[in-house]
Amino acid sequence: MPAETIIATHRLAKHYGEVRAVDGIDFTVRRGEIYGFLGRNGAGKTTTIRMLLGLVRPSAGDVTMLGTRIRPGQQSVFARVGCLVETATDYPNLTVRENLNIQCKLTRTPYPAVDRAIALLHLHEYAKRPAGQLSLGNKQRLSLARALLHDPEVLVLDEPANALDPAGIVEIRDLLRHLADKRGVTIFMSSHILTEVAHLADRIGIVHEGRLIEELDYDELRAKARQYVEVVVSQPERAIALLQQQLGITRIEQTVEQRLRMFDGLDRVAEIARALVNDGLELTGLCAREEDLEDYFMRMTGGAA
Ligand code: ATP
To answer: For a disulfide at 11, which of 27, 61, 165, 186, Cβ 3.0-4.6 Å?
Structure first.
């Protein structure tokens, strides 16, 4: 039986005057799945997340969450949803524990949940500190603790890894994986860094200029990374002309100053070296490589490799 759909958007759009922040997005997220919503700055991630949470009214299309059509002011379904939309601390003068106590009151959650959330996010040391004095990374932990406090079925997280150090990123990644696998929590998370979601998400949706341009899982993503021959050579422009004329290699990209990538000619490494050296060019590097996933993401979203 196919897994239950927990979040679905249908032609979801938000326009601000001429700006098409979100431009007709369709996706579904199934129960227990981690969906990574990946896009560069300004791609439309936060606007989408705000519409999922009923914080912004769509210009067109709709969102259904847990079987309920989301409309601004819609309340009941959000008792089952935890969210992280920004790092702003609600009560900067109150301690971490006091902030979580308030969240308990708001969500009618029994108070022992506060200790569990503090333990889960490793916030013991900071429990008595005013939230406004926390480092950015620990503020993010507090926001995550708040999102998890009432044991939600669904988590909607905007850039959860923001401001965390590398160890913190791994820890949060493990925590999210645990919640999805062991508790069946459905997670929708955004990120602008591919490597942050690549190993975690079951499915990745790439959003660019308000549109969902590709949806794929990690294995599909791996398969899309192109292989190429990279050379480091003096006079790269002359080298490009030579490779085109003598060897018929046309798919060449210059990445940084003297570095060229050739996407055809993978089986002709020796020939390439000979042609360049025979022409008197200085060849200081040559190897066959594979694009890393970040290169692929940049290529898909129009950035430099
Ligand atoms: P980032 O990673 O930088 O947070 P994002 O993918 O979350 O980016 P959004 O914040 O959703 O992107 O913004 C998408 C586009 O919509 C941007 O061009 C942004 O300037 C524009 N935008 C967002 N909110 C508004 C608003 N209230 N009024 C006008 N334009 C807006």
So the answer is: 61
Do 229 and 218 lie in one domain? The reply is no
Q: Is 47 in the pocket of ligand 1 (CB under 6 A)?
A: yes
Which of 222, 244, 264 is the endpoint of a domain? Answer: 222
CATH number at residue 273: 3.30.70
Please give the number of the atom of ligand 1 that sits closest to the Cα of 207.
Answer: 6
Q: Give the residue, out of 22, 40, 46, with the most ligand 1 atoms within 8 A of its beta carbon, to mutate for a pocket test.
A: 46
Q: Does residue 155 contact residue 2 with C-beta atoms inside 8 Å?
A: no
**Which CA distances in Å does 283 have to 19, 41, 84, 230, 251?**
47, 37, 51, 11, 19
Domain end, chosen from 202, 222, 242, is at 222
Report whether residue 44 contacts ligand 1, using a CB cutoff of 6 Å. yes
Among protein residues, the one whose CA lies closest to atom 24 of ligand 1: 47
Q: What does pLDDT average to in each consecutive run of 10 residues of the chain (305 residues)?
A: 86 96 96 94 94 94 95 82 78 94 91 94 94 88 93 94 85 90 94 85 94 90 84 94 93 89 88 93 89 79 62
Contact 45, 190 (CB under 8 A): yes
117 and 63 in a single domain? The answer is yes
Is the CB of residue 48 less than 8 Å from the CB of residue 25?
yes
CB 291 within 8 A of CB 230: no
Residue 24 alpha carbon to ligand 1 centre in Å: 15
